[in-house]
Specification:
The chain is an alpha/beta fold. It folds into three domains: 1-37, no CATH class; 38-246, 3-Layer(aba) Sandwich (Rossmann fold), CATH 3.40.50; 276-314. The protein has 13 helices and seven strands. It has helices at residues 2-6, 10-21, 27-34, 54-67, 122-131, 151-154, 168-175, 177-180, 194-207, 229-245, 248-274, 279-291, 297-314; strands spanning 42-47, 72-78, 104-110, 136-140, 157-162, 183-186, 217-220. The protein is globular, with a radius of gyration of 22 Å.
């Protein structure tokens, strides 16, 4: 499988992604074998409220990058189906124009309970597609509002997509989106209120504390008609050049690696704790005590933690 992956076999890449998503026993070994090739792709996050036209913008950006001769990967992070556990919008019908292009790799991923708008394994899949040789990785998130912040840790350039009539200017700032955006896109700008929305965003950006020289761009688009996409691509390239010039890509990758390692360790500890013999029975008894008012949830969590520590100290 590794030989096929390194030769550019899309099916081999898809199989390794599935292994990473499902925590297969050989996933870590396969991932480690290709990790030396990670670090070349430009990772672009596209986020914002549902209905803002993110998928259309992703499609138009991909087409534009392909015209420039760049290979593209698209990771579309969707809600989890309560029945199959898979991504509800996994077919991505709206990106059908890209399906026949062998240099565009599209993967839908289910959030599987992740609260940050990104699937738990998204960072690792980005790394794998980077190692696969993709020049640009577009990460489209589900747009869940206040929890939609993880994308800034994964992407090097973050696009916030809003629409004129949504009144999301103030709400976006409350949700933290104003803090993470490098480029703000007012899509569907042929509708009333686009100029007002632009003004609101620019005003709030003036109030945003700046600790870097990059001043966030604001642009109007009508993505479905391909209006503003060329300028948006130019802004994306300008931001990437800025990151390179100030050596921020290396810093971003270091932070990304750190957060990935921490998240994986925390996940392993969590799995180990909840799989501990007798821990579920203890949890159930503590729930009963909390319900009866004899204990607080804080005290109950402390008791579970102490139970786990004592068990491992006895067996160390």
């Amino acid at each position: 499988m590794l030989t096929q992956f390194k030769s550019g076999d899309r099916a081999a890449c898809a199989r390794i992604i599935s292994k990473i998503e499902n925590d297969s026993s050989d996933a870590a070994e396969l991932f480690s074998a290709v990790y030396a090739d990670v670090g070349k792709a430009h990772r672009i996050g596209i986020t914002g409220p549902p209905g803002a036209g993110k998928s259309t913008i992703v499609e138009k950006l991909a087409i534009r990058f392909r015209k420039e001769g760049k290979t593209v990967a698209i990771i579309a992070v969707d809600p989890t189906s309560p029945f199959s556990g898979g991504a509800i919008l996994g077919d991505r019908i709206r990106m059908s124009s890209l399906f026949c292009d062998p240099d565009v790799f599209i993967r839908s991923m289910a959030t599987r309970g992740s609260l940050g708008g990104l699937a738990t394994k998204t960072k690792e899949v980005c790394d794998l597609l980077d190692a696969f040789g993709k020049d640009v990785i577009l990460i489209e998130t589900i747009g869940v509002g206040q929890a939609e912040l993880d994308v800034a840790q994964t992407a090097q350039t973050t696009l916030i997509v809003l629409v004129p009539e949504s009144g999301d200017g103030i709400q976006a700032m409350k949700a933290g989106l104003m803090e993470i955006g490098d480029i703000f896109v007012v899509n569907k700008s042929d509708r009333d209120g686009a100029d007002r929305m632009m003004g609101e965003i620019e005003m709030m950006l003036e109030m945003r504390p700046e600790n870097k020289d990059w001043h966030a761009r604001v642009i109007k688009t009508v993505a479905i008609e391909d209006i503003g996409i060329n300028t948006l691509c130019r802004y994306i390239q300008e931001h990437h050049a800025f990151l390179e010039e100030h050596d921020l890509l290396t810093m971003h990758r270091e932070e990304n690696i750190r957060s990935t390692i921490v998240a994986l360790v925390e996940s392993r500890y969590s799995q180990a704790l909840w799989n501990e013999t007798g821990i579920q029975e203890l949890l159930q008894s503590l729930i009963a005590e909390v319900l009866s008012g004899r204990k607080s949830p804080t005290f109950a969590s402390q008791e579970i933690w102490e139970h786990w520590l004592n068990h491992h100290q006895q067996h160390s």
